[in-house]
Here is the input.
Amino acid sequence: MNIERFQEILDAYGADPRRWPEAERDGALALVAGSDAARGRQAEARRLDMLLDEVSLPVRLDLDAAAIAAGVTDASGNVLLFRGRKAMPFSIMGPSFAGLAAAAVAGFVIGWFHVADYGADAQSVASDQPAGLTYTDVEPW
Here is the structure.
C-alpha cells in the first residue's frame, strides 16, 4: 500500500476503515500505523466525513401520480394547459410561436456575435488597395 492508493481509498470510501475494500484494509491500516502523512490524510478525511454527516438529507415527498395527472387533465384525458384551457393539438400548418421566437433569438445572437476571421491573406489584399478604399475580396461564407 502506498500513500497515493491510500488517498484514493479515502476519497472513495471515507475515513472509516470499515468502509474500505476488504482486500486492501489491512495494508491501509498498516500504512496508517507507520506513517504520519497517512494519519494526517485520514484525519482530514474524517473531518470531511463529519461535515458531510451534518448536512441534512432532502425531504422525501410522497407524490401521488394519479392526483397530479388529475390536476393537469380533464375528465376525457385531454391535457389542460392553463386553468381549464385545453392544449392545442399539433398543427401541420406551421410551428408554434414559441419555436419561431426561439429561432429568431438564436439567429440574432449568432449573427450579432459572429466575428469574421479574415486572416493574413485578406490583410495583404486590403493593403494593396488604393488609399481610402475599404473593399476586400473576402467572401463572408
